[in-house]
Write a structure and sequence with these properties.
Mean pLDDT: 87
Structural class: mainly alpha
Number of helices: 13
Radius of gyration: 18 Å
Distance between the termini: 25 Å
Length: 291
């Protein structure tokens, strides 16, 4: 398959790889909270990712992209600080599996921001599929928590808002720069704040972490904050923001699977049914017209 011939298909593949990496974020955050405070996790993972990004840029001799500073800073604030602090706060009060389902609204929010910020114009069928997918994950969420919302749900909604806006800003720059370079520069431009904040919260934010908790923090920095965005940004830019964003409906169920393996949370037959339904909606949504 040639990338130039099937950019949408390749964009979906790259997006799926990114989603698979992102799907382990909440379970890993849940594990990391055993040894670190939410603020240390937020800024510590940013420092880890910034070091990896900075070294990559230096080794490949990349120069600062002129004229993109504002967009990169906006994307950095959203994905480096906004999503991590909101999602980590939420993980203190709700299970990772429950949180993963709440984040099922990400594709719809990303499509909304794509229409506002990037000028994409999804057709009625696309919005219908997007709303149906979001309704499914919300129904799953309230069903899973006894048909009521928790404080953690609000934190995760704020996490979804900041993440989806960050995705759109990153994808716009990814049409000019490679996806890995976009997240790298976003991390570098925010690195001074990340380093200072990490040093300020270190004394009270580190609680004798175990090897698994250290490993979880490393995953959040190297994969969730850096590696995943390399694939995700490239996928959004290549296949279209609103279209590829629908793949993220599957992230909820990647999170459920990882939660079952790493945190010991059970997956019921109802969960599998919701996964199949959401997968069908993603498949239908990718065929809807987007201008």
């Amino acid at each position: 398959m040639r990338i130039s011939t099937h950019p949408q298909a390749m964009g979906m593949v790259l997006g799926l790889i990114g989603v698979t990496i992102f799907g382990a974020t909440l379970p890993m955050t849940h594990i990391a909270l055993g040894g670190f405070s939410p603020f240390f996790i937020t800024f510590g993972r940013a420092v880890i990712a910034s070091v990896a990004a900075g070294l990559t840029l230096i080794l490949l001799r990349k120069r600062w992209p002129k004229g993109q500073g504002g967009m990169l800073l906006g994307a950095g604030i959203c994905v480096v600080y906004g999503f991590p602090i909101f999602s980590t706060t939420a993980m203190q009060t709700i299970p990772a599996s429950h949180g993963g389902v709440i984040l099922g609204i990400l594709p719809l929010l990303t499509s909304i921001f794509a229409a506002i910020v990037d000028g994409e114009r999804p057709g009625p069928a696309f919005w219908a599929y997007g709303l149906a997918g979001a309704a499914l994950v919300v129904l799953f969420s309230i069903r899973d928590s006894g048909f009521h919302l928790q404080a953690g749900d609000l934190w995760l909604f704020l996490a979804a808002v900041t993440a989806s806006l960050g995705y759109v800003l990153s994808a716009k720059v990814s049409r000019i720069l490679p996806g890995w370079e976009v997240i790298s520069w976003a991390l570098v431009i925010t690195a001074p704040l990340s380093i200072v904040a990490t040093l300020l919260v270190m004394e009270s934010g580190v609680h004798a972490p175990t090897n698994s908790e250290l490993g979880a923090l490393a995953y959040l920095g190297l994969m969730s904050m850096f590696g995943g965005f390399v694939f995700w940004n490239a996928g959004l830019a290549l296949g279209g923001i609103a279209r590829v964003a629908q793949v993220q409906l599957l992230q909820s169920f990647v999170t459920l699977a990882v939660s079952a393996m790493l945190v010991g949370e059970a997956i019921s037959p109802a969960t599998i049914s919701f996964a199949v339904a959401v997968a069908l909606i993603v498949w239908l949504g990718r065929k809807a017209r987007i201008a």
